[in-house]
Structure formats: C-alpha cells, structure tokens
Amino acid sequence: MKRQLLGFLVALCALPVYAQTVLFQEPVDTTGAFPVGWLARRWTTTDQTPSPGSGGFSFALQGRQADRLCTPVFDARAATPDTLSYLARRTGSYPALHLVVRASVDGGRTFPYVVAAAGEALPEADGSWTALRFPLPSELSGTSALQLCFDALGGTSTGARVQLDDITLQGTGQLRRWPLAAWPAHIDAGFVAVGDTMSLPLQVRNQTDSTLIVTLPAPPSPWWLSRSAVILPPRQTDTLTLFVAPTLADTFAVTWEIPLEGDTFPVSLHVTSTPPLHALGWHTPTIAARAQDTVQLGLQLQLSGEATALQGLLVTALLPAHRLTYLETLPGASLPNPTQWTLQTARRGDTLQVLLLGDGLHALPAGSYPELLQFRLVPGDVPDTTRLVLALNTLQATTATPEAAPMVLALHPRRLHLTVRPRTAQAVLFPDTLRLPATVAGSRRTATAYLSNPGGERTLHARVLPPSDPTLTVAPDSLAVAPGDTARLTITFHPTLRDFGYRVATVHVRHDGLGTDTLLVVEATGVGGLGDATEEGAVDVADLQRGIRFVLALEEPEAQDRLVLDVAPFPYGDGRLQLDDLSVLVQAIVRNAWPDGHPLPVPPPTPPAAGKQEAPIVFRPVVKADGRLHLEIDAPQPFSALQLVLPPAFCDTTGTTLPSEARLLAATTTDRLTLLLYRLDGASFAPGRYRLGVLETERADTLRPLRWVAVDETGRYLPRPFSRPQVPRSRPFPGHPFSSHPIRIRLSLASTPRWCFRANSRPRAPSSWRSSTCWDAGWPSSRASSPVDRSGTAGRFAMRRGIGWRLGSIYCVCERLPTPGPFRLSCSAESRIHSARVPFVTVRCSSYQRLYPAVWPVV
Fold it and tell me: Which of 372, 539, 776, 795 could hold 825 in an S-S bridge, CB 3.0 to 4.6 Å?
C-alpha cells in the first residue's frame, strides 16, 4: 500500500503545473454606494443574511422586477480568464431558473456567450449560500472590452430575493479594468449610401471614483465626431454622436483609438457604401402633399438570387416631430398571402416599430418586392410649406431556418422627404364698416356682418376679441367657417343713460387664414341719455336751454325730459326740475364731465339740422393790430344761448360786450376751452355783434372751434357757419409766398381704434402738391421715411391710404391704436399756398371729431 501511494505522488509531481491566479474579485463591503464600475438599475447592496465569504455584504435583487448586474468593462488583451466563481443564495419564491450569466466582448452591446445557463447559475436548494464555479469560453481571452452580466429575470413574489457575493475571475496573465468604457466598442453602421450621412450614439462611462478629462482624437475618415473633449465626473455617463458620410463606394473598417492613461481604448468602426444586394427601403424617396391629405408610402424589399428566404423582420422608423393626425400600417401589394403574416406596429412618441413575421410555412424567397408594406398617414396643418423627413433607423431580419439565423439587410433608401404644403383659408369680412342709426338709451339695436371663406381649402377658425366699448357686444365670439361658406356675426349696440353719444369701435377678428387680423369698424350713436333732452347724442347748450324753459315753466316737461334733466342731487335727482339741476348741467358742459368725473358723450360728427332760410350766426375770430385774437360773433337774428369749444388756451373775458342779463362761463380743462353764453330768464339775445373774450395769438393753438353751437329760445339749433380768421394785411409772411408749410399739432388722446386727420389748406389744384409726408411718434411706419419728432413715444404711423386729395383738402387715414398720452403729429407738404391761407387739421377719433389750427407758419 505504501509503495502504491508513493508511486501516485511521484506521478502527480511529474504532471505539468499551470499558475492560475485571481484576475478580479469584487467583495461587497458596504451598503449604499454601488461598487465603482458596476452597472445595475434595481440591484442593491445589503447586509441581510450575510455570506460566509469575504464580508457580510452582498449584491441583492428583490421582487418581481427583472434587472441585469454587469461587471466593469475589462481589458483582457493580456489575460486568459478561464473560471468564474461566486457565492449565491435565493429564497424559495425566487426560481432557480431565473438567473443566467452572460459574457460580452464588445463592451456590453451584445452578450452572445452564456457562461451559466438557466438552472445552473443558482443553487437548487433555497435559503442557504452555495459556492458556484463555471469555466469561461475561450473566445473571451485576448479581447479588449470584456464584460460579464448576471441576467436576473425576477421572482414570483414581492418578497423574492436573490443574493450574490465574492464574484471572482481566475486565469492567467493580467486583467485590467478600463478607467473609461465606451459603448459599444464595436460600431457597425451597415450600409450608408454615398452622399448620405448617418449618426450613431456612442456612450462613454467613467469607471473610476475620480473625474476624468478625456481628449478625443478625430476618428478616421469617413467618420467624424461632434465633440473633441469630454469631462466625466465619477461614475457618470455621457453620450457622444458619431457621424459617418462616405464619399466613395467602398467598405471602411478602421479602428479608432482613444488615449487613456498611457494606453489606448480601441473602438472598431465599420461601414460600407457599396450598393447592397439585399436592402429594405422607401419605394419613393421624395413625395409632396397638402396638409390633411392622406399620403400613401411604401417599403420595398430587394433580395438577391442567393439570399435565403426571409422569415421576419423588425424595423424602426423615426417619424418627424410634426403632428400626424393619422397613421396606419398595412400589408403591401407585393406581400404574398398577407393573411398568413403577422403585422404589428407600436408607436412611442416619434418612434414607430413595425414587426412582420410569417408562420412556419410562409417566407419570402429571393426576389423583388416593390411594396412589401404600406403606410398611410395624414400630416397636420402647417403654417407654411414644410419639409418632413421619415428615416429608417434600425432593422433586424431573420432567415427561414431552424436556427433563425440573422439576415444582413441594408436600409436603402433610408430617408423619405415629405414636402407638406399648407391648406389655405381665406378670411373676408363684409362689410368692413357698420353704421348703426341713432338708438335711444336703454334700447338695443343690432347689425350683421359676415365672415366668409371663399376659395378656402380648409376650415377657417376665427376668434372675435371683445370690443373695448362697453355698449357694443359681438356674438358669437368664435367661428368655424367651412370652405366656400359664410358665417354671421351679430353686433349689438346697447347705449345706457351714462354711456351714449357717438361711438366708434374696432372689432378685431383673429383667424388662422391668410393675412393678418380682420377689422370691422362699428359706428353708432346713442341718444336720450343723461342730460340729452334734445335726443341728439350730445349734452350741450341746447339741452341747457330746454332745461331753463322747464324750470321757468315756459314749457311742460315730458317723462323723458324729467328722466334726463333731473340730475341734482347727482346722478339720480330728486324728482323735480329746479335751479340746482341747471347748475349741475352748466358745470358739466363747461367741464365736459359730470360731477363724478364721467365724461360727457362725444357729439355725433354730423352737426344738428338748422333752418335753411334763417340768417346764420357767425363766429368771427379776429386778429387785431395788438396781435391778440378777439373772439366775436355776429348775430343777424335773436338767439338764446351758444356754446363754443376751442383747444385749451387762456381766455380773457374782462373786455366782453354783453348785456347785463347774460351769463358767460369760460373754463379751461386739459383738452379744451369751453365758452358758454346763456340767459336764465329764458329770453333771447338781440341781434348784433358780441365780443366773448380775447386770446393771446401765440398761445392760441386753434383758430377754428372744435364745437360751435347756437340755439334759439326753444332750444332749436341755429345755422352757424365759420368765418376764416381775419389778419391784418400789413403782417407779412416770412419767406416767399410759394414755399413748404409744415402743419404741426400737439394733442393728448386716449387709445382709439381708428382716426384720421385732414389738412384743410385748400390749395389751388391737386397737381400743385409736389410732395407730402405724414407721421407721428406713436407707431411703426410702413411708408413714412422722413425724420420723426421723438418728443412722444417711439415709432411711426401705419398709413392706410396715405396722402390724398378730396374736396380741396389734403387728408390721410391711419389705422392703429395710439398709446394713451400726448404725442406729436406732423404733416408737411409743398404747395402753392398764399401766405394768408392758414391751414387747419381735423382729427377724428372714437371719442370726438375736432378741428385744430396749425402752428403756422413754421419756418
């Protein structure tokens, strides 16, 4: 026996000896932070049920969720790893078949090698730790991007758990962990046509616990990189973009080396631009359509004569970011026996996946299939012509063999360019101006406008902005007008006791058709409001005269008179017409506002009717030799009261020529000077000439009244023409008589929707005007190019019709809202105007229409 034992030992010592060492071991020694370089989403570290190995901590995965636990990426070019060992434990609700150990040699992109199959990677018995040991495939040796992965499929309950510890690689040589891992380490772009460009992601990961600063060299042609440097904090990952654009029909297989700590990390790059024998691509690379059209696209398949029959394919397409209102995938006309094929699609955001799989008896032999699959899609609306790109991204194909071997198919043509032209809609609003007749306060009046979509290719959607005027409403507030159809807009005017008079508002109709917003101008007049006894839409001296007659019992007031003239105590009165009502009315007229600050209504632009056979009462502004402007009237017939409104100026009323019974009030506000002449005895003024006051000429911004009203003793309006200012002939005009006469005014307006001005200089003929410009300092300009007076807000006018000739006057109409506050308006023209002709400017706004004199002449 001893001799036999001695012989066995001698024979054993004679065998060759291989030095097997530990190349890598990762003992888990803490909970919380994951070991450096390891990858997992749901795996954790735990100290529960400690292993008998190197420490009391281990990797753990609990519950039904699946996850992969992957080692760092190793450099095995100088190593021969041959054994994997680890400690494993599972609970009874974690099946022994639910773990597979796989290996990758391309940095983790694919795991084609199985180290421990299902049923081997976990112990048969549950509840206890077991040491497991497996040989490694020889294909792992000498590789530059080795990675192992524990592929856990999940347990059967929430309490199921699997634990791993002391994961060890043994073998010979030297195994090194890369500080930087690139994924994938082998990039095959497949086929890329000459002139085409393809982008592929490349992830770089820091496998250390310190920050890495890596300078990336340019990859070999035909590849290039989006960045040349990357900074990676510990354990962090960044994504780079590699581009490839072949310029020649050839195959390019190169290695891109990234320098790392005295070594280089190799990334193999492969692409071919040689026309492929087997390809799947778009049937028509370029197509045009209108928005909302149904577009039909096709995928074609080309298999050369030596190709194996195709069993199935999975293709991914990148859809444009533009909204597609409809998308459907159907079998194409070239697919034989479509009922024997399974066709499934899945859309996730802008990515579309299409699966085509035949049953065991049906496959696609070699040949040409011009329309293998068909796509039907409907692009959404676009604001203008838009070019969309649909790109085939990835493709997997299998052969009709028992092993389901992969088939190499190129994507060509890869991109489809879809040009989408917008469907147009026309917005035509008619009429563009509505003029409503006089409406009594408290009642309603409606008018109709129509929005049409003539020649439209789609439905016109419009929204009506509510008018700023509280007396106007528009219904409906939104519209959908079909092509060739017309929709109705109802405008309702509802004046009240406080809000009446002349109203101008612009209704903005916003739409998605061609052009900008459509505007509707509404003009309406409310009458019979507070203080308007004459029902003319204004509160003026005529209403005061009516009130005087009622207070003196010269006439019996009607119900409407008592309603509108009983204003004291303001605003509801006391049921009687007395002197205090007249006082409130007088103060309101001269101040142009009621006691609470509410403005009086804007008078209608059309003056009240007057008797045609009666001699007119003439207002005569006279510039005397002393250089002052005397305000005089000539009355060839009796009158009872008058009202004169001028732009704001100081008026000296000490030198008046009035009878003792007359009451003359002169009040200046921020926007006007009001002169009110009346008698409280109800009698009339005798015919004659009366001086109302004196203005300093250099301070008088107007020589023509904004409002000029005279009434008889019953409150009826009298004719009142305007006499041009009389100036001494001895006062020469500076400069020659035929020169440029700029017209300048300065005024303060609230925001108004539409206004115009007219320069009443009455030249001899339109042809005598050589040039003219109009601008202000309030809005952008589309025509004016002259320097702008920047004393107001920045900007210029937008001219609607420019300067034109009408009734011997120069005029222009502007549409855009001026900002509230003062601004300066200027209009200049060269004309053969005599020096004695003084131009005036008429400003028509939503709140008034007034005439301003020019600061004239300006040299």
Answer: 776
Q: pTM surpassing 0.90?
A: no
Residue 154 in tokens:
């999940």
The two tokens of residue 178 are 């890369």
Alpha carbon separation from 355 to 28, 76, 313, 330, 399 (Å, rounded)? 43, 38, 6, 11, 14
Residue 560: helix, strand or coil by DSSP? helix
* DSSP run (H or E) holding 565: helix 559-565
CA dist 100 and 111 (Å) reads 11
Strands 286-290 and 415-421: what pairing?
parallel
User: How do strand 673-679 and strand 641-646 relate by DSSP bridges?
Assistant: antiparallel
**Exposed e or buried b for every residue in 784-813, given b needs 16+ CB within 10 A?**
beeebeeebbebbbebeeebeeeeebbbbb
* CA angle 489–494–500, rounded 5-degree value: 130
pLDDT at 792 over 60: no
Encode pLDDT of 305-345 as tens digits: 888 899 999 999 999 888 888 899 999 999 999 999 999 99
**Which sign, positive or negative, has the C-alpha torsion 655, 660, 664, 665?**
positive
Contacts (Cβ under 8 Å, ≥6 apart) of 402: none
From residue 5, alpha-carbon distances to 13, 14, 15 in Å are 13, 14, 16
| Cβ contact 754:849 at 8 Å | no
| Structure tokens that stand for 107 in this block | 């940095």
